[in-house]
Amino acid sequence: MMLTSTNQSSPFTILLVDDRAENLLVLEELLDNGKRQFIKAASGNEALKQALKNDHIGLIMLDVQMPDMDGFEVAKFLKTNPKTRDISIIFVTAISKEEQYVMKGFEEGAVDYLAKPLDSNVTRAKVNVFEQLWRYQQALKQSAGELATINKQLEKFVYMVAHDLKSPLTGLLTQLHFVEAMNDSGPVAQAELADYVGDLKDAGYHLSTMISTILDYSRQSIDQQSVEEVAVAELLSQTVQLLFPPKHINIQVIEPLPVLSTKKIKLQQVFQNLLSNAIKYNDKAQGLIDIGCTDKGKFVEFFVRDNGPGMTQEQQDKLFRLFQPGGHSQRESSTGVGLNILKMLVEEQGGALRVVTSPGAGCMVSFDWRK
Questions:
Q1: With left for phi above 0 and alpha for psi between -120 and 50, is residue 360 left, alpha or beta?
Q2: What is d(CA 20, CA 328) in angstroms, rounded to the nearest whole number?
Q3: Rounded to an integer, what distance in angstroms lies between the CA atom of residue 15 and that of residue 8?
Q4: Are residues 333 and 196 in the same domain?
Q5: Beta strands across the sheet bearing 57-63
Q6: Which reaction does it catalyse (predicted)?
Q7: Is residue 141 part of a domain?
Q8: Which phi and psi angles does 298 have, rounded to 5°?
Q9: Assigned domain for 65 exists
Q10: SS3 label, residue 133
């Protein structure tokens, strides 16, 4: 395993425990290589306090013969405490080397045994081995933390994919049911049927492309995801087509719109989330949705504005809480994941997302996107 630079540079901390001050000084002088840190304890009780107080101890050199609480008792307490049970212990002792004493040390949790008088070369070599083992242990902990972070990112990605594919699929199925109902009610003119089939086919192609793009995106790290020239007007046209807005919803794109050098799928996800919500919650007989932008130097500020029901302050407060829907209706089953991801995508750009709304006055969501 390769050790990270963080682990390589972190000081290795050794707790030295002996009731004789001169022995502590000798041990520190023997083991000091200029990069290690030492904590000293003159009794078993003090050793336990130091071990519980310091989270970064990598090794304990523990004298067996001490008044009040001997080394065996200290080791037993250390190994029964979840905070200290994984710290390596080397017993240092001048008592009998007979097997029963050595075995008692191992039974209480020691990982090695050194007999006094200490052989300086053997002592240094053993401590070097334990330092290396500690560094491997730290590297494994760091890797476990990184894996946990990656797993959380993957969970967000799964939710993102499910949410972003649901809207176009729902629209496509709605159109199919509509064509089926028309056919059941009577003969459909060939030209009209051809138009509907053409729209469905185009939507299918767009959806297939979207799935392929998401799969490519999932195989790449953030640094590898390609930046491309994106004509925002064309992107919006494709996104609207995928959402199959009802005929009573009029979506107006206010041009000109820019051509950006950006990661296309991320910008599409933001627009698709906003448009999907604006369509879904609109309660007017004639729904209006405007999309436009303002040049802000390094950023473009886009907005999506609708004449829907608007939101109360309570609903706004819930908007970006993961798994808690903002909701315009108790019947909605949305998890709130989409809006949370939308906020995350905008903040990745160094921008901010703003909501201006009030009950009955529609809603305008604006966001910054880096050029």
A1: left
A2: 73
A3: 20
A4: yes
A5: 37-41, 13-17, 57-63, 88-93, 112-115
A6: ATP + protein L-histidine = ADP + protein N-phospho-L-histidine
A7: no
A8: -75, -15
A9: yes
A10: helix
Residues 41, 45, 47, CA angle at the centre, nearest 5°?
A: 35
320 and 344 in contact (C-beta within 8 Å)?
no
| Segments of the chain with pLDDT less than 70 | 1-9, 95-110, 150, 153-164, 167, 183, 188, 205-206, 209-210, 212-225, 320-340
- Prior bond of 256 cis (ω within 30°): yes
Q: Which residue has the tokens 């520190």?
A: 28
Distance CA 320, CA 339 (A): 6
Phi/psi for 171 (5° steps) reads: -65, -40
pLDDT value at residue 225:
59
Residue position matching structure tokens 């494709």? 238
* Contact by Cβ (8 Å): 89, 64: no
Summarised one tens digit per residue, pLDDT across range 49-67 is 999 999 889 999 999 888 8
Last residue of a domain, one of 103, 118, 133: 118
- pTM (two decimals): 0.46
User: CB–CB of 10/136 below 8 Å?
Assistant: no
